[in-house]
Amino acid sequence: METPMTDLASVQQAIHDLGAAGLSVLTSRGEREQRGKDQTFLPAHASDAVVFAESTDDVVKIVNICRTHRCPITPFGAGTSSEGHIAALHGGICIDLTRMNAVLQVNADDFDCVVQAGITRESLNRYLRDTGLFFPIDACPEASIGGMVSTRASGTHAVRYGTMRENVINVTAVLIDGRVVKTANRARKSAAAYDLTRLFVGSAGTLGIITEVTVRLHPVPDHVAAAVCAFPTIGDAARLVIEASQAGVCFAKVEFMDTVQIAWTNAYSKTNLAPKPHLFFEFDGPPQAVKEHAAIVEELAREHGASPLQWAIDAAERAHLWRARHEAIYACFAGRPGCQAWATDVTVPISRLADCIEETQRDLQELPFPVPILGHVGDGNFHLAFMIDPARPEEYEMAHDVYDRMVRRAIAMDGTCTGEHGVGYFKNRYLVEEFGEDTLSMMRDIKRALDPMNLLNPGKLFDAI
Amino acid sequence: METPMTDLASVQQAIHDLGAAGLSVLTSRGEREQRGKDQTFLPAHASDAVVFAESTDDVVKIVNICRTHRCPITPFGAGTSSEGHIAALHGGICIDLTRMNAVLQVNADDFDCVVQAGITRESLNRYLRDTGLFFPIDACPEASIGGMVSTRASGTHAVRYGTMRENVINVTAVLIDGRVVKTANRARKSAAAYDLTRLFVGSAGTLGIITEVTVRLHPVPDHVAAAVCAFPTIGDAARLVIEASQAGVCFAKVEFMDTVQIAWTNAYSKTNLAPKPHLFFEFDGPPQAVKEHAAIVEELAREHGASPLQWAIDAAERAHLWRARHEAIYACFAGRPGCQAWATDVTVPISRLADCIEETQRDLQELPFPVPILGHVGDGNFHLAFMIDPARPEEYEMAHDVYDRMVRRAIAMDGTCTGEHGVGYFKNRYLVEEFGEDTLSMMRDIKRALDPMNLLNPGKLFDAI
């Protein structure tokens, strides 16, 4: 088992050499800690220095110096991870890619663009505003594209446009031995050799440092309509989504909120939703197609005992409707003031979604504090946010027990320990249960072949290789 | 460089041990040659024995015996490859998976099913007939699902439903050391660890023997409409597809035929199409949506000087229209009687498609025999079929020169040497040009880590590792 034997003198030598090579290096505690702490309750794990890369060549220089001194490397894009991906668990250096934020090409006729890894998804969409195209994956607005590749991010649009898996055409990455790989050209499909693109998507910075990415773009839809309605149970809501999909309905978004989340959202976002499970829908496309899909859903909603759909057609109405959804995390902070959020997600086959949520809700009822559930129903993916009082560590212990049962339940239902947040390091422990020892050891074989000293984001996915 | 040092005595010992282990083994020349020759002009490369697997456990037994004796293994699904994937270039044994043809689960609510690797796509769709769902990837009807995974197959539906890359949820595979890996559970999306599923999709049998596959299913569309029209040039046809896509049109299929193919198709399929480049369209979905998308295309077709669209709405009319497309290869055999077909494909970004086809057509005009071009325009993918007179080997030489320029042209246009047929072994030579030495060596690193003796389908993708 290879764990990086982080030798402090070697790391200091690496830091010295990085500065001597003309790279911009920061060593203040604040700078280091800021980049070792993400949006989770997980503690900061500071690197020993922050080094800025402004080009792929800079990354090659950094990697070569770090390899020589066996210095661990943790890449930093935006720090919006939800599972501790940027924690420098074994120290070493943090490569800060935020200065690599350029759009290199927009190929409107090909529905793609080439960007540097540090650009945020919001900046990219701002840049694209006049092209009639957009990049649909709506993880956190400040998330970097490189980070989204690394975590295989998705969001509310995944049911319509896919996740990062379907929307990355190629990546340029620097391997630990200094090789620069470009995983594909820009062809929309290819049957040529191994799909290294998909190998990097979701690899959490453990195989190489991603410096450039070509992503797919989609036409801004001609027409968009959104709606919300209440259901007697989550089971009814899930059945509607299954039956609508079987009828050929193409949802642009289909989002679930349970009654706890609805109560907090009503309080925070000044909505007036009934105290029941809700679905938020969005449809997009040519106007008749939108109407037709919406009509099928309205009929099914009636059959499943839902309240009448409240429609929002124009942009202002839609913004109002979705605000409640997008503010959900703020509603949680307001719901239990002074608490820290411990958010996580799992995914199951949609046929098991209602069972998985309901069994989890029963567990949650044993806790002395309320916990809301949100979900991307079309994907079978749902999120919990435990709002933990930092003054009461026993809350963490109680939450952990429910969390653990939920993750194991999802895996047992033929699902996964994470649908979109990634494994980071806290969920390493579930990978054997999800994949089995043989499959996990195949992953380790690949990691060892490409990073034998385990210098690239060590501790993520695997405690040791 | 590791090439299998196929030792005949060892291989004979392996064959003996396979029989002794109770496996069904065939050694007649006919059986061996039949499974070493696919649908191409490439010569047969027979294995030394054919072994039938009826379960994943059988495959483990076979792999363990073969590894012990350093005996190469070539998997056989249906023999419909277009690039020599099943050629036993280094001898050894052929694992015949045709008896592993069961449907293990249909999960209609989850839009997926679990099958053994040897089932054909046509059998699977026959099995699914009453479920309201279908498996959309329409490579050769007799193609096996395992083979389609291995070659990352696609077809006319890829523009709408994606390729095997998007439609495989997990695979079960046996590695050369006998480990049985299952790459994922059935969740529709997952952010957990490395995407081994996509690593197997397109790996050409070089990383493991695929025994089971979970694939995505899609609802049989409510309504389908098809149409055909002629364009002044391929450039006009490509512009239409780009502009319609920018307008949000969702094609179910959009297929190109050049004038040579049209002439041969008119003769063979008794159609009466004008001697011009044509597009064949299909739209699917709820009826209004189909009409709306079709109306946008009709308007754009007028703007681009196309002939009026000839529509085919009911199933019989559509079958008639698509018959001409699906019979294209028979039309080629009839177009140059007595010739062998040398079919190949490339893909470029769609903005370069017209240029790539037109430059290739100019090259083709230098040949003393006509060569038709067909394309999946929405993907930027097109096919050539050189019809070669076996009595005139100089035709092969002349064709090879055009072929070589076409593949290099596609790569230079930021495309790929193959969009859907795969590399097999004939296109190994183009991988350095497409990926660069660093990226190709990363692929070799993975191959070596998982199959250090290069026993799994040796010679495919890489001449040696």
TrEMBL record, chains A, B:
EC number: 1.1.2.4
Keywords: FAD, Flavoprotein, Oxidoreductase, Transit peptide
Domain of life, per lineage: Bacteria
Cell inner membrane listed as a keyword: no
GO molecular function, one term: D-lactate dehydrogenase (cytochrome) activity
Domain called FAD-binding PCMH-type: residue spans: 43-220
EC class name: oxidoreductase
SUPFAM superfamilies: FAD-binding/transporter-associated domain-like, FAD-linked oxidases, C-terminal domain
PROSITE patterns, per the entry: FAD_PCMH
GO process terms (BP): lactate catabolic process
Names of the cofactor(s): FAD
Cross-referenced PANTHER family: D-LACTATE DEHYDROGENASE, D-LACTATE DEHYDROGENASE, MITOCHONDRIAL-RELATED
Family label: Belongs to the FAD-binding oxidoreductase/transferase type 4 family.
Protein name listed in UniProt: D-lactate dehydrogenase (cytochrome)
Lineage: Bacteria, Pseudomonadati, Pseudomonadota, Betaproteobacteria, Burkholderiales
